[in-house]
Design a protein that fits this description.
244 residues; elongated; alpha/beta
Length: 244
């Protein structure tokens, strides 16, 4: 791994950070099944701190993620915080990028669990403009309680992550070997139109669930007297997946 100040490598600094903030009750580790959470899990094990790792089961994750976790991380706790997920579309609408709308799905799936605890997560600045403003230790209010996020690899690049995985011979999801640069929620509003088109082809069952929820939302708007500007369900759906 690359050297930083005082001759320490970035993984050594990450381990020291994890050790420095270890809470009395141990960390709540959010494990998504992606490459970043694989690295975080390994770093926490190396740091020899107390923790419990959780996967928030998502109905919009590729099935390969669940297969990977079952095979390589059977000790991970599976939490079911997103039951009835698609019913939320009726009240919230389809998740969208700001400023058009907001991505309510993350709060329900990715950010659920660990309320009132120190959550250790694999977020990185390289992933989005929003995360560029994050600090390694963030205080968040979740379900009325102070929740703290520790982000040990916040400043790592994609190359740093893959180098660490290679050096420690860590397993990763097969999706990466099929051309996926990042893996996560199917039809995430932050995916490009090209990525969205590919996901509809590769994961037709989840895409169909999204489409049914979209149609129900369209009908609901008409029923309550607040119709959308789109003339048909097809128009509305095609606009959403176009990412315009």
């Amino acid at each position: 791994m690359q050297l930083t100040f005082e001759g320490k490598t970035i993984d050594q600094l990450a381990i020291e950070l994890i050790q420095a903030y270890e809470p009395l009750g141990g960390y709540y580790l959010g494990f998504s099944g992606g490459k970043d959470s694989v690295v975080i899990y390994h770093l926490v094990k190396r740091a020899k701190v107390k923790f419990d790792a959780h996967y928030n089961v998502s109905p919009i994750d590729p099935p390969q993620i669940r297969w990977f976790i079952k095979e390589w991380y059977p000790e991970i706790v599976w939490d079911y915080n997103a039951k009835g997920f698609f019913k939320n579309v009726l009240s919230q609408g389809l998740p969208m990028r700001p400023p058009v709308g907001y991505r309510w799905c993350c709060k329900l799936i990715k950010e659920a669990g660990g309320s009132g605890r120190v959550k250790i997560l694999g977020m990185r600045k390289a992933e989005s403009n929003t995360r560029k403003a994050y600090k390694c230790f963030e205080e968040k209010l979740h379900q009325g309680q102070d929740t703290f996020w520790l982000l040990p690899i916040l400043n790592w690049s994609d190359g740093d992550v893959w180098q660490y995985i290679s050096e420690h011979d860590l397993a990763t999801s097969a999706l990466y070997r099929h051309g996926f640069r990042r893996i996560g929620c199917i039809l995430c509003p932050f995916h490009s139109a090209l990525e969205t088109k590919l996901e509809i082809q590769l994961f037709p069952k989840v895409a169909q669930a999204w489409r049914l929820a979209s149609d129900r939302y369209f009908d609901k708007r008409i029923e309550r007297g607040t119709p959308l500007t789109y003339k048909t369900k097809d128009d509305f759906w095609n606009w959403w997946i176009s990412r315009k």
